[in-house]
Design a protein that fits this description.
Layout lengths: L3 H12 L16 H4 L10 H12 L11 H17 L2 E2 L7 E11 L4 E4 L2 E3 L6 E2 L5 E9 L5 H4 L8 E5 L7 H21 L4 E5 L2 H10 L1 H5 L1 E3 L14 E4 L4 H4 L5 E6 L1 E15 L10 E7 L4 E6 L2 E4 L2 H20 L5 E7 L7 H8 L8 E7 L9 E5 L9 H15 L2 E3 L17 H6 L4 E5 L18 H20 L15
Parallel strand pairs: 6-7, 7-8, 8-10, 13-16, 13-17, 17-20, 18-19
Antiparallel strand pairs: 1-12, 2-9, 2-12, 3-4, 3-11, 5-10, 6-11, 12-16, 14-15, 18-20
Helix pairs in contact: 3-10, 3-14, 4-10, 10-14, 12-14
InterPro entries: M28_fam, PA_dom_sf, Peptidase_M28
Protein name: M28 family peptidase
GO molecular function: metalloexopeptidase activity
Length: 501
């Protein structure tokens, strides 16, 4: 017996001139019978999305940093909007909320770092790449860029090694991962060769990232209680200095002194969970889960006079789209129930979605599919991407086929497929809230418009968001979910699904 989704896929294939899931133009066609928009689609309005975006992504909520009062205030605001729309609470104890703890491990303010006669302050003059206990008092040796020729006659055993970062790396949006990956890998090699500490000095290209990305290092590491990032360990310190340090780091006979202690704190974060009950007595027990996250980076070091890292695209855009989809399901409920989860602490390591997958407020087996919204308001108006569209990331051909069909019949975005490939340097598939669901074999995809130069900067503000594009992606997600929510059978998990990491 051919599964009903297989029958539909064959029909779509017959109607399509060219079907190729691995190419941007390879999209399924859709029959006329399925192309008519449900009545709920009219509830997805750009005016509502723009109003909600400026409220959630504006300065009032101060960037919604996980574990802060700002995240909690924003979460209360979202819950109140959902209540006013008519959604049912689906969190813990009859509320819209599912609270959980996040644990933060950071370097203490009493830690000391000195090179020669200079006293350096972590978070200002220098940054340690990991919050680990260390006590080092050793001679410093400068090895230039660390090339084989420069290292040939240098004894690094028992010494702190200062090295100038080199290499241009890939394109800008991927350079950050290249930078951190190179520093971590090369430092491990030097320590293995006998160094007791590694001091990186920025070159011209790395300097812009020193200024832009080191705010995360100030805060330390986050995890759920008992997670791997909560462990306090001892290791040789890796220090990162600005490009201006090159003028004095070369001086001979300097001593490197570093005494690092760490401390740990527990903070509350929260998932917001709401529901629109299904209309079918049997299918209503199953859920289509629309996923997003409400947190961002909060208030940090000012860049060009702006200290609020708003996160309008990341991820107020996903939140307001999810709210619009909720309005559509309130206007016209589907046969299956629609579940809406706004995850907390995504920016700290997908903590809210990891917690929800472990402690769902509905039976985990009742979750038919997850449609995740992650940064959907920038770049070309007609471009988008599905994460989980192609192997090894695709865990449900049925789910992907439904999304492609809805796009072909309605929104017609040109779909990027490069960012979903396992070899893409950003590893984008592994960086949003669909991932924990996929790891427990729940069909899951993410809708995104990908990175842009304002990513994780104070420039990610509501004024820069294409609200028309957010509206169109919201409609695309809704129509995909509506199809799945009303189909007689569940979307299937692909056999032998296994992620590459």
């Amino acid at each position: 017996m051919i599964h009903l989704y297989s029958q539909r896929t064959l029909l779509l294939a017959a109607l399509s001139a060219c079907i190729n899931l691995a190419s941007p133009s390879g999209i399924h066609a859709q029959s006329k019978a399925r192309s008519a928009s449900p009545a709920g689609a009219a509830a997805i309005r750009e005016a509502d999305i723009k109003r909600d975006l400026f409220a959630l992504g504006g300065d009032h909520f101060r960037g919604r940093e996980a574990g802060s009062l700002d995240e909690l205030k924003a979460s209360v605001w979202i819950a109140e909007q959902l209540r006013a729309m008519g959604l049912q609470p689906a969190g813990d104890d009859g509320t819209f909320f599912q609270f959980f703890h996040i644990q933060r491990t950071r370097i203490t303010e009493t830690s000391r770092l000195a090179i020669g006669s200079r006293q350096l302050t972590h978070g200002q003059d220098a940054f340690l790449l990991a919050p680990a206990i260390a006590s080092v008092d050793a001679p410093l040796v400068f090895v230039g860029t660390g090339s084989p020729g420069e290292m040939a006659n240098v004894d690094i055993k028992g010494k702190a090694v200062a090295i100038l970062f080199s290499g241009t790396g890939p394109a800008e949006l991927s350079y950050r991962r290249f930078l951190f990956g190179t520093m971590t890998r090369r430092a491990a090699e030097l320590v293995k060769a006998g160094a007791v500490a590694v001091v990186w000095v920025s070159n011209e290209q790395a300097q812009s990232y020193f200024e832009r990305w080191t705010t995360g290092l100030e805060r330390g590491r986050y995890d759920l209680p008992g997670g791997p990032n909560t462990r306090i360990f001892t290791q040789a310190p890796t220090v990162w200095l600005p490009a201006s340090a090159i003028d004095w780091i070369k001086q001979p006979n300097q001593q490197f002194t570093n005494v690092v202690n760490v401390e740990s704190f527990s903070y509350p974060s929260v998932n917001i969970v709401a529901k629109v009950a299904g209309t079918d007595p049997t299918l209503a027990k199953e859920h289509i889960l629309f996923s997003t996250h409400q947190d961002h980076d909060g208030v940090r070091r000012a860049v060009a006079g702006d200290s609020i890292w708003n996160g309008a695209d990341d991820n107020a855009s996903g939140c307001v789209a999810t709210m619009a989809i909720a309005r559509a399901f309130v206007k016209q409920p589907a046969k299956r129930s629609a579940l809406f989860v706004f995850h907390g602490a995504e920016e700290r390591g997908l903590l809210g979605s990891r917690y929800y997958v472990d402690k769902p407020t509905v039976p985990r087996g009742s979750i038919v599919a997850v449609l995740n919204a992650e940064m959907i308001g920038r770049n070309a108006p007609d471009s988008a991407c599905i994460l989980g569209q192609q192997p090894p990331h695709r865990n449900s051909t049925d789910l992907v086929s439904a999304a492609l069909a809805a796009n072909q019949a309605n929104t017609r975005f040109k779909l990027d497929t490069l960012w979903d490939k396992p070899e893409h340097p950003e590893g984008w598939y592994f960086r949003s809230d669909h991932l924990p669901y996929a790891r427990v074999n729940i069909p899951a995809i993410a809708f995104t418009s990908l990175l842009h130069p304002d990513y994780h900067t104070p420039k990610d503000e509501p004024e820069r968001i294409d609200t028309g594009k957010v509206t169109n992606i919201a409609r695309w997600m809704y129509l995909t979910g509506w199809d799945i929510a009303n189909h007689p059978t569940r979307v299937r998990l692909d056999p032998n699904f296994k992620l590459e990491r």
